[in-house]
Amino acid sequence: MPRGSEGARGSCAMREFPMSRAAVVLAVLSGLAAPAGAAEPPGLDTVVAWMAGSFSSAAQAAADPEFLDIRLEMAPIWPGAEPVRWLYVEQAAADRLAAPYRQRVYRLREIEKGLVESEIYTIADPERLVGAGHDAAARGRLTPGDITLREGCAVYLKWTGDSYAGGTLGTLCASDLRGAAYATTLVTLGDGRLESWDRGFDAGGHQVWGSEKGPYIFVRDQVGR
After folding, report:
1. Single pTM value for the model
2. Within 13 A of 154's CA, how many CA atoms are on the CB side?
3. Is the pLDDT at 51 greater than 70, yes or no?
């Protein structure tokens, strides 16, 4: 763990995953079980390799004007933090790359074989890191003391035989964006492709933001640096 990590979340890299919580996650994702005879889960290193890089939804936007051309950058940070991995994440509209609408840090760990948890962290003063997805020097300015965990917003990914799929748990991820009470995320991750469906719902369960047609489909442009 890099210098300064103790100031962020204590010994967060070594936190135990409660067995009762693991049971809830497995129950929620039970419909995503890999079929009999499917390939063995490739593991956390492969998940990180599939996520790291530059992605674009340009092809989807060209085929369907209801989707925007969004650019997604994910780059590994803080090496040596095993058994977890960390990623810096930046999303921006293709015509506003200098003004990303989302900057986050993801903390990934394998809870058990074939089941990966991705915790989501916000970043203090994220504007100073714009462009850090492809700028190693900028990423070097980010310390664990700069991040804050978004409680209840972790994404859980289960191996399905040829990809990882999953999402957030129920209504646990609080959100007040555009009148929402909570947000949900559904994700499918494969080699060179990531599908992500973020939505916000009010207290009555009515969708108030996010795509109504389905997930954004991001295709890898180049290997992350």
Report:
1. 0.84
2. 19
3. yes
